[in-house]
Amino acid sequence: MMDMRCYVNPLITRLQRYKPASVIILCLWSAWCPVQLSAQAMVDPANAIKELREGYLIIRFPTYKSKIDTLTAMTARATDPKNKERLQKELQQTIEERDTLRADYIEAFKTRYTFSKVAYIFDYDAHDLNTAHYYNLEGESMAVADLSEGPLYYVFFERTEEDALDALVVYNRNMKKVPRPFPNDFMRGGINVLFLKISDKKFPSWRVGKMNKRFNDFFTAVQ
Length: 223
Known about the structure:
By secondary structure, the chain is α/β, with parallel strands linked by helices. It has helices at 5-15, 19-40, 45-54, 65-77, 81-112, 144-147, 191-197, 203-221; strands at residues 56-61, 117-122, 134-135, 141-142, 152-159, 166-171, 186-187.
């Protein structure tokens, strides 16, 4: 790569007579450089799938904690019987949705996923992945030190950047999304929903099975 100093030094010399302009341009230059360095530090899809094969896929389960805490507080303060009943119903539905999602996906990963080892954390505990509480699929606590011996990849329940569709998105340990052709953005919608209506499979089971197959296919392709 050409040494960028051959451009920077003459630029600084010419701009010394125009100090305000120099400051502005040099500030823009310093902001541009990290973007270029970041673009160069891309995640390698082929290496990522090989690492995942040897490591853990960590599921980050949503807990709707903020919503549940808010509904709990509102229910406790409610004085109108009808409003209190409505809030209690919404609170119960949210708790059931949380518990059903976790139970269905744990069962799906137990029965439909074989590509790598699996563990999980809760979203409220994920602000610091080094101190988060990790669990195996049986719900037993796992030591972070044991997990850290191998590669760690994380799968989040979120939405795609392009279409804002519900998706399972895979990140590496540094929270960088693994780019294509690595299999990623396992979405819900379209033909997926139609398929489920004519089958006996639950969506989590179908989705995790699809993930497992695509991981295996890509791993074979890069060997």
